[in-house]
């Protein structure tokens, strides 16, 4: 994506299908709102293979809010913190801003989903992204996917807007939640997406460096402690989040961002949403940092395994201590997910929390249903770029358009209620408009 490069000086779902898939891969190494198809299409539908030499293509569903969307990216360097994954280097992050702007993007004005180097690596056989989603290697034009946002556009003037941070799943790049992020921006939020460098599948850094995940390298250690690795992942992500919050206060008054973007940041109204390890991070970061007023955890477990990556239950700090501010849990129909009563970390959090909280489970879904996988992978399946089995394991059999609509609506309802004071009462219980969202009291 286009970048504003600004070096800054400063003094996963933890387990479950994604975490266990990652753990299994590591351990083994040591010994779509209708864009996905017609309204009645299911995620299981696979089609004919694309012609030889032709890469599969896909499109994100359009945002539903009243505002056009702008985006810009910024490079941050925390000179006061050594990178926990790369000794001897300061911690570097790439973040992107998504915000209301005046003029919609069209054609070539639409910012790319991934930079060319990141897209090529994401789609390759050795990427963590491909490990997570199991699409066929080198069969998809990931860099050809376009967002609906205008790159480096000025922000729509007139008001400061609530800020929502987004953290992707374990090993996923920050782009993997673009559909949800664009929709929030189109509804009037400023969303800041964070790439957790050296953990994410790949991150494009200034100067042409592509920072690829260290997980395949760590897999070579026969003494790898998966629980310790995941604790380190969450701790690093929380530190990243708090550093980004510090930097937002500086960027608000700087000239680094496109016109009006800094002024649009209302840092008195901050929320956070994440998927998988990003959902776990959102709740832990809210516990650790009072600047975060409300958070959504989309299928991120709150317990760690033992050394073997499979056995033992060790609760996260936030699960043991609870939260005094609002949070929303969104589960799936994976065997290791579902309502809080079925998950030791979620249940502990539920019992120890004094703030408002609610829990919903998306029927027919799987772990990746809350990400861009829900809209993009069914399109790839029809072109032979992912198997029907891998597709079903990733996003289940819920209609893609319904999954996307439900995710966008429930996340927006939560932040409207707790960052804007507009309560539509959708989160009070079951809804006839969303029968696939099962209320879990």
What is the strand tally?
16
Order of helices and strands: EHEEEHHEEHEEEHHEHEEEHEHEHHHE
Largest sheet: 12 strands, mixed
Rg over CA atoms: 20 Å
Please report the distance between the alpha carbons of the first and last residues: 41 Å
Q: Unreliable stretches, pLDDT < 50, 5 or more residues?
A: 1-47
- Strand pairing plus helix content: what structural class? alpha/beta
What is shown here, in short?
This protein is an alpha/beta fold and 441 residues long. Helices cover 30% and strands 21% of the residues. The chain is built from twelve helices and 16 strands.
Q: Would you kindly provide a written description of the structure presented here, covering whatever features stand out?
A:
- This protein has 441 residues and is an alpha/beta fold.
- It is built from 12 helices and 16 strands.
- The protein has helices at residues 16-30, 116-122, 128-133, 178-186, 215-218, 226-251, 277-288, 317-321, 344-352, 373-381, 388-395, 400-420, and strands spanning 3-5, 68-82, 90-101, 110-112, 146-151, 161-167, 190-195, 202-204, 210-212, 265-275, 294-298, 303-304, 314-315, 327-331, 357-362, 437-439.
- Strands 1, 2, 3, 4, 5, 6, 7, 10, 11, 14, 15 and 16 form a 12-stranded mixed sheet that branches. A two-stranded antiparallel ribbon has the order 8-9.
- Helix 4 packs across helix 12 (400-420), helix 6 packs across helix 7 (277-288) and helix 10 runs antiparallel to helix 11.
- The N and C termini lie far apart (41 Å).
- The model is unreliable at 1-47 (pLDDT under 50).
């Amino acid at each position: 994506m286009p970048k504003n490069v600004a070096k800054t000086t400063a003094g996963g779902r933890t387990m479950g299908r994604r975490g266990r898939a990652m753990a299994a891969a590591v351990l083994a190494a040591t010994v779509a709102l209708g864009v996905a198809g017609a309204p009645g299409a299911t995620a299981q539908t696979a089609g004919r293979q694309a012609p030889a030499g032709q890469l599969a293509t896909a499109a994100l569903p359009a945002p539903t809010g009243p505002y056009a969307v702008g985006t810009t990216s910024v490079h941050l360097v925390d000179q006061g913190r050594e990178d926990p994954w790369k000794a001897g280097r300061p911690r570097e992050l790439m973040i992107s801003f998504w915000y209301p702007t005046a003029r919609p993007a069209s054609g070539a004005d639409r910012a790319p989903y991934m930079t060319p180097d990141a897209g090529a690596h994401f789609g390759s056989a050795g990427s963590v992204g491909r490990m997570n989603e199991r699409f066929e290697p080198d069969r998809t034009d990931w860099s050809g996917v376009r967002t609906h946002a205008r790159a480096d556009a000025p922000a729509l003037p007139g008001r400061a807007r609530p800020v929502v941070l987004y953290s992707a799943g374990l090993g996923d790049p920050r782009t993997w939640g673009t559909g949800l992020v664009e929709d929030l921006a189109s509804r009037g939020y400023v969303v800041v997406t964070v790439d957790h460098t050296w953990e994410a599948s790949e991150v494009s850094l200034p100067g042409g460096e592509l920072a690829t995940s260290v997980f395949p390298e760590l897999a070579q250690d026969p003494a790898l402690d998966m629980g310790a690795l995941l604790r380190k992942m969450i701790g690093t992500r929380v530190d990243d989040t708090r550093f980004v919050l510090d930097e937002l206060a500086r960027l608000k008054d700087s000239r680094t961002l496109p016109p009006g973007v800094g002024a649009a940041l209302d840092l008195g109204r901050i929320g956070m949403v994440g998927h998988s390890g990003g959902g776990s991070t959102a709740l832990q970061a809210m516990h650790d940092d009072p600047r975060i007023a409300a958070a959504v955890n989309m299928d991120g477990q709150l317990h760690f395994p033992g050394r073997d990556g499979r056995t033992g239950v060790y609760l996260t700090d936030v699960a043991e201590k609870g939260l005094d501010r609002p949070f929303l849990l969104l589960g799936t129909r994976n065997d290791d997910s579902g309502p809080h009563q079925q998950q030791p970390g979620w249940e502990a959090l539920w019992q120890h929390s004094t703030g408002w909280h609610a829990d919903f489970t998306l029927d027919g879904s799987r772990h990746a249903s809350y990400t861009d996988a829900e809209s993009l992978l069914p399109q790839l399946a029809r072109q032979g770029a992912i198997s029907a089995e891998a597709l079903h394991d990733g996003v289940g059999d819920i209609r893609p358009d319904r999954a996307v609509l439900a995710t966008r609506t429930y996340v927006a309802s939560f932040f409207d209620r707790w960052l804007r004071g507009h309560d539509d009462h959708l989160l009070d219980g079951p809804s006839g408009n969303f029968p696939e969202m099962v209320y879990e009291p």
